[in-house]
Every structure is written in structure tokens, then in C-alpha cells.
């Protein structure tokens, strides 16, 4: 009988233990689906661009083992030149060399006609890893009309200690059809429809804690046959019916086709680069001074243009229409789900005005609620307590104002003769910067070699 009871007890303990273990939630894991396109991307030498040790969402395309093209918007500018006090670094994936390393950038040459307002010629040629003996090349796609599909991709290093990469993620656009909305939203695209790729596709960021919004893919590949070739770098997005990528009516993202800038890169870096086309007789345009057509305006009324590093809200550049022939540029402003102190161009945006009005109304409602709450409490307490000896009302107020910048509220009731409490007024300083600030333009020539 005793043995039977022990066996029964053991059985019950086992069942309960199993139930407890199964009830413990397991952390979510990202499901990686391996397919032909993922394998093709893994075979291409890809990279990630870092600024001051922080991984970015910026687009970059390797040309060789020591040269690359990078979206110009991703650099910091001071006095019209790239700010070299910022540490720029690239990491190469393991594709076909079976090694992954990080290298500081050496030469950074921004296209001389780069326009940070319209996003024309949004590219920079860079060098790195000049002492490496291992050499390799990456073909760049030309002739967009011959591409079988577009593949938008992103890469991410998930473990910096061991330099462990996530599998590249992508979205394929099989049918490349004309989208009139692309021209309607972006003036620079309307003037250069064959120099950009445009899409409505956005990606869930691989760096999960960076932003709550979906973001543009950093790089575009062209599929030709059973291979992928780098074809474009992310330039900018235009939002209609909102001011961010989370909440809007429409959004289009634009990619600079880099085949048009191989000649510029060759002249700037004194190197030769390879390309690929389905037409063996085709060659990329050969003018090293090539530049896009100018746009008649920066943005369209009722739209907002976004660009930069979407992993860092301080590095996002926002351009919005303020009048029929003007625009305001704000760098590092508030992004959906995140906020960062930014510089205003002096011309208020509609969204800024709305935020200010809503903030003012909210503050008035809060102050009125506190005021009437205090009056109600004083009337309630005076019925049962001596107002000069009752600490409970003061304690309630202390709790209401806890963590309010370290300040404390005035006493609920002041004894006769006590001096009135000081009023502290906080003001937020707003720094102004011109839309034509030199930080947005210019050419940075290579450093002098030591």
C-alpha cells in the first residue's frame, strides 16, 4: 500500500514538473528560411557600414576588396566636407573568402554634384583595406531593362564579439511595372526616371531595437539568370499623408542606380571596376563627370522626404514642403517611436505646429486637473484635520510630482508668514540652422598619404 502511494506521488510530481517546465515561456526566435535567393545573396560579398562604432542602416556596395560606393547621406559634413572626426568603418561578409573583417575608411570622395536637398547624385566613392593582399571584384549591374527581377536586401551583424552575421533578408520584386506615384511624389525621380529604381517595399529591421517602423532596404540587387548583381543604393523615401514610415497614406523609396557612377568612382579612386549585362556588347556610361538632371523643386506639397540612417533617429534627415517654392530641412528630429534633439531650419513645419499646439493644450489640461484636485483635497481634508498639522496632503503631492526633474511642490498649506514658493520656469533652447547649411554639400578629397 505504501509503495503504491509512493508510485502515485512520484507520478503526480512528474506530471506537475512537466507542466511547470512547459509553462515557462521561451524567447522568440527569428525563423530563417533558406532558399535559392538567400544562398545567392550569401555568395555575394556584402557589408555593413559603421559610424563611431554603431551599426547603421546605410547602403553600401563593394566594388573590389579595397573600394566601395556608399550613400553620401550617411556621412557627417562640416564646412562642406566630410567630418573626419567621425570614425567610419566597413565590415565585409564571409562570402567566397570565408573571412569577415572590419576596416576603417581611408579615402572618402563625395560626388561633386551631390545635392543633399533633392538627393541628386547621392553617392560617395571610398577606399579601405589598402594593405590586404587578398583581392576580389564585384560586378555591378547595368541595363535595367534587361533585369529579370529586383531583389532588395539587408545585412546585419548579430554578434560583434565573434563577428557572426544574420542570414541576409530580402524581398523580390518579380514584376517591374511603371508606377506613376513614384514621379508624383519625388521631383528628382520625375526628372531622372531611368537613373533611379522606385518601390513601395519596406523591410522589418534586422536590428530589432532600432525603430518601431519598417524601413527601406539598404541595397538593391538585379537578378540576371541564376545570379545577383549589385545595382542600387538606397537614396531617400517620400511619405504622403504622414511624416514618418510608420503612419502614412503612401510611401515610395528610391535607389540610385550605381552603374551610372562607375566612371566617377574610377576617376576619383584611380581604379578600374567591373560590370555585368545580359547584353555582352553593352557598357556603362563612361563620363566621369556624369550628373543627374536638376529637379524643379525639392519636395511636393503635402509630402515629407526622409533619408539617412534609420537605425539612428539623430541621423535621419527630414525635408518637408513649407510653401509652393520652399522647403524646410530638419536633421535628427523626432521619429515614430523615438525622439532625438534636432536642429530646426527656422521655418516651422506643419507637423511641428500641430505638436506644439497639442502639447500646449495637454499641459493646460494637466495643470487644471492638478489645481482642482488640490482644491478638492484641501476641502476634504479641512473637515477632519488641522491643515497645519496634516502631512498626508503633502505626501500625496510629493507622490504626484516624483521624478519631476528633482523639484518638489510647494506645501499643501503654508503656515502664516511663510515665504511663497519660488516659481521655476524652464525653457527649451531651439537652435536654428539654414536649409543651405554647408554641412549638406561639398566634396571631400582624399587624405594625404603618410
TrEMBL record:
Residues in the signal sequence: 1-23
Record's keyword annotation contains Signal: yes
Compositionally biased tracts (Polar residues): 424-439
Key words of the record: Membrane, Signal, Transmembrane, Transmembrane helix
Comp. bias intervals (Pro residues): 408-418
Annotated transmembrane regions: 353-374
Region described as Disordered: 404-450
InterPro entries: Peptidase_S1_PA, Peptidase_S1_PA_chymotrypsin
Name of protein: Peptidase S1 domain-containing protein
Native species: Coemansia guatemalensis
